[in-house]
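Example 503, ligand nicotinamide-adenine-dinucleotide.
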Amino acid sequence: MATSVENEQVMPAVRDFIRNGPKRLFIGGKWVESQEGKTFDDIDPATGEGLAQVYEAKEADVDRAVAAARRAFEGTWSSLTSGERGKLLWKLADLMEAHQLELAQLESLDTGKPINEAMIGDIPQAINHFRYFAGWAGKVTGETLTPYGPSLPGEYLAFTRREPLGVVGAIVPWNFPLMITSWKVAPALACGNTVVLKPSEMTPLTALRLAELTQEAGFPPGVFNVLPGFGQPAGAALADHMGVDKISFTGSVVVGRSVMQAAAQSNFKRVTLELGGKSPNIVFPDADLDAAISGVMMGIFFNQGEVCCAGSRLFLPKSQFESMLQGLADRAKQIRQGPGISPMTTMGPLISEKQMNRVLQYIETGKQEGAQVVCGGDRNEAAGPGYFVQPTILLGEDRMTVSQEEIFGPVLVALPYETFDEVIQRANDTPYGLAAGIWSRDIKTALKAAHRIKAGTVWVNGYNVLDASSPWGGFKQTGVGREMGSYALEHYTEVKSVWVNLT
Ligand code: NAD
C-alpha cells in the first residue's frame, strides 16, 4: 500500500529526501552508515506502512559521535567568538525559514500531525528558538561580586564566568521532534557547547534535515551530530557515557528516571528532564464560556492530544456542567480526522500502533471503572488504515485511572466541582506539575488560582501558548530544570568564581 508520501501535496524535495535512503547518521560533519550497518523502518502513522529506512545508531556510533563532538568543542567551536556562533545560529534559522514548508511536510509525514499545525506551530517555534538563542550567544556573562566578608584579610576582586559544559547529549521524543530539538540545541550551541542529538526512533527525519542545514550554514564539523536510533541501546549509551557532560532529556517519567540514574552512576553529568503531565484546565463560573470551550478543545485535542501539557483533566462548575459538556461534545464531532499531510485534516493519527492500543486500553479501563463516554471512545477506521482514535470525552471521577495517569492521546476527562478551594486542591492532587489553564473574567480569582496551582506554567484565559523567551518545565515529577528563556542558560553553562588578590 502507498504511504502518505504519495499525497499530491508533498513537495518533490520532501519525496526525494525520504526516498534517498537509507538515511545515514551525521557524525563529525559526515554522513555515515552505522558501524553495524543495520537499518530500521520509520513508519507512516497514517497508513502503518514503512515511510523511510534509517541506519540505526548503537553504542559504537555513540562513541564516535561523542569523540567528534569533543574534538569540535576543544577545537574549532571554542575558537570562534560568541558573535560568530550567534551568526551561525541566525543563519541556520534563516535556512530553516527558507525551507519552512519542506520541514513542516517532513514533520507532518513522520508524526502524523496536521500540516497546518506544523506550519503555524512546530516549525516557526523551532526557527524562533534559534533566533532567540542566537541573540543570547554574546550575552552570556558572569557577575562582578562585592565580597561581603572574605575568609582572609585583604582586598579582593571576585567575579564569575559562565563557561560551556562541553558535550551535550540531547534526547528527544516524537510528539514535537524539531521544536523540542530546537529547545535543546539552540541554547546548548549559543552557550558554546557541542551536541550529540538522538531523535526518537519514530521521528528522525527533521533532525536529519536540520543536520543538512547546519552543513549549509557552515557549522564546523562535529559541532552538531545526529544519531537516529532506539532508546536502547543508543539513548541509554548517551546517558551513560563518560564523555558526555550533560543530558537534556524530554520524554516519559520512566525513562527520565533511568537517565538520571545513568548520570549518577557514570560521571554525574548534568541533567535536565522534561517529563509527563496530567494538567488541569479549570473553568470558573464567571468565565467567557465560548472562549473556554475553544480553549479546552485546543488544550486537549491539539496534536492528537500527544502533548506533554495537554489539559487532560477538565474541571467544570457543577452549575454549568451539562451545558459545557454538550458544547464540547458538539465541537469534538466537528473534528476532521485523516492523514496529517492533507490540509483538510484537523486531527491526525497517533504515532504508532502501540500508542493507539495504549490509548484505547485507557478508555476501556475508564469504562470499567465507571466513566461515562460523552463522545468518541473508539478507533476511527473511517479516517484511514493508520492509528486513528476518535476525539474522546469521558465523564469521570478523580479516583479513576483515566483521571490520574497520563494518556498521551485525545482523551479528556471532565470532572464537576463546587468550590474554589476544592477545585484547587483537586487540581494539585497529581504527581505532575507541568501546566494548568484557568478560565475566569475575575482578575482576583484568576490570580489567586495561578498562585496556588503547582505547575511550571499557568495560562489564564488561554492554553498551549509558548515562546522562546518564557521558561518551560515542571514542578514535582514532571522534571528537573527549565528550558527556554534566560533560565535555559543556567542549564548549559557552569559557573566559575574567580578571585583576584589586590593586596
Ligand atoms: P520516551 O521516554 O519513551 O522516549 C523519549 C526519548 O527517549 C526517545 O528518543 C527514546 O528513544 C529515548 N529513550 C527511550 N528509552 C531510553 C533509555 N533507556 N535511555 C535513554 N533514552 C531512551 O517518551 P516518548 O514516548 O517518546 O514521549 C512521550 C513522553 O514524553 C510523555 O510522557 C510526554 O509527557 C513526554 N513529553 C514531555 C515534554 C515536556 O516538555 N515536559 C514534551 C514532550 C513530551
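Summary: The first strand starts at residue 25 and ends at 27.
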